[in-house]
Amino acid sequence: MDGWWTPFLLTAVALASAWAWNMVYRPMMQLRRLIRDLAEGQKPTGFVARGSLGLEEAIGNLEKVAKRLEGISSQKESEEFSLQTILGSLTEGVLVGDAEGRITLANQVLLRMFELAEIPKGRTVMEATRLVEVARAVEEIMREGGTRNLEVQLPSHESGKVRTFAVGLAPILERSGERSGVVMVFHDLTKIRSLEMMRQEFVTNLSHELRTPLSILAGYLETIEDPAMLKGTEGKKILEVLRRNCERLTLLVSDLLELSRLESGQLKIRIQSRRPREILEEVKEDWNRAFAGKKVKLDIRCDKELPAVQSDPLRTGQIFSNLLENALRFAPPESTVRLSARPGAQLRQTEFIVEDEGEGIAPDKIGRIFEKFFRVEDSRTRDKGGTGLGLSIVKHLVQLHGGEVRAESVLGQGTRIIFTMRTHRV
After folding, report:
1. What letter would DSSP give residue 23?
2. Which among 112, 227, 242, 380 has the fewest CB atoms less than 10 Å away?
3. For residue 411, how far is the Cα from the chain centroid?
4. Using CA atoms, how far apart are residues 320 and 314, in angstroms rounded to an integer?
């Protein structure tokens, strides 16, 4: 009898084990794997549809949770992508900090502004920007709320020049109204402030240039109210002073009008092909008498076979006139001013050089001599005449020809002005 029931018992045990495996144990293993995937933030590899003891319902609920989390993750990634796209299209630098003042986000413009290799996540605003005022403003906003607008300055590591930024700061508010961070927008004002400074210097210098001859004219006009003052040698001196200062005013106004036309793009040039040697010989012929009168030698060094350049003869003469007037003004007697031309460093380019043996220019001032009204030594240079606009006119005329101009100088040895022109295409 016992032997007869044994196969049935074994079969029942096998069926029960199979049922337990399919309905309990395997679903439990899948459930564990599903929970582990969700916990690790991974997309689940699959779901089971059957189970017992509430497993089917639990698995179904987890499936819903997983799909919802997946949707939230996709939405978050989409939002982050959209945010980065928007930030990347801005011309302003953007920096975002959390409630503790630690940086969480920045765009590429800001990284370039502050010479950062990567987003300084986790660092403080002070560490990233080196701007004490901005760091203090962040603390005030987190403590008191409201917005802040600042204008701050920061020296550049690369150039050493001071840069100016306008910074707007505002809190990031949660739905509850609590402040969870601060967003900062940086706008680079360096170029604007530089232009404003140049404008102020220009107005100041122009006022000074006009005031000096006008004061002299006004003073002598009071003197000549007495007709007797115009007689004899003294009268001639007064008239000469009046004439000289009238010429100075006329020259200044003429240079200002010329510079205005150049800067506004109104001046047009008429290009011709001419050999550099021909240009230099013509310039020497025009200026020989003036140089001989001051006992300064004018020398030419130029290969006759140097290729022709494309230039406007009238404007080229104006370039050399301004340069030679400066050279003659500062060249000591018995010295030499050299005019030369040579192949340029770039293809289809010729360099012209005007070199004197004067006092030279200090290294910290050589880069500014092409600015309007800039003078190396203001009082000494003004006494020697000139409007302070000649080299600025030279720069614009050279650029109008598609060339560049620069200066080289050694104190006590002289100065070289080098400008380029395009060679004629054969």
Report:
1. I
2. 227
3. 31
4. 10
- Axis crossing angle, helix 55-89 with helix 26-39, rounded to the nearest 10: 20
Q: How many CB atoms lie within 10 A of CB 420?
A: 20
Identity (one letter) of the amino acid at 304? Answer: K
**Residue 335 belongs to what domain range?**
272-422
What is the secondary structure of 140-167 as a DSSP string? HHHHH-S-EEEEEEEE-TTT--EEEEEE
Q: Where are the alpha helices (DSSP H) in 224-293?
A: 232-264, 276-293
Length of the chain: 426
Question: Is the Cα dihedral 124, 127, 128, 134 positive or negative?
Answer: positive
- pTM for the whole thing? 0.55
Domain count of the chain?
4
**317 and 341 in a common domain:** yes
Q: Quick one: which of 312, 320, 283, 417 has its CA closest to 360?
A: 417
Determine contact, residues 114/128, Cβ cutoff 8 Å.
yes
C-beta of residue 355 within 8 angstroms of C-beta of residue 340? yes
360 close to 414: Cβ distance less than 8 angstroms = yes
* Spatial distance between the Cα atoms of 206 and 401, rounded to a whole number of angstroms: 27
Write the pLDDT tens digit of every residue in 256-309: 777 777 777 777 888 999 999 999 999 999 898 889 889 999 999 999 889 999
Pair 95, 105: CB distance under 8 Å: yes
Q: Tokens representing 203?
A: 């107005």
User: Which candidate, 379, 372, 376, 374, places its Cα nearest to that of 362?
Assistant: 376
Type of residue numbered 148: R
Among left, alpha and beta (phi > 0; psi -120 to 50; other), residue 115 is left
Strands (DSSP E) contained in 174-253 are 179-188
- Per-residue pLDDT tens for 309-323? 999 998 898 899 889
Residue entry with tokens 């100016």 = 164
Closest CA to 46 of 66, 20, 61, 68: 66
CATH number of the domain to which 139 belongs: 3.30.450.20
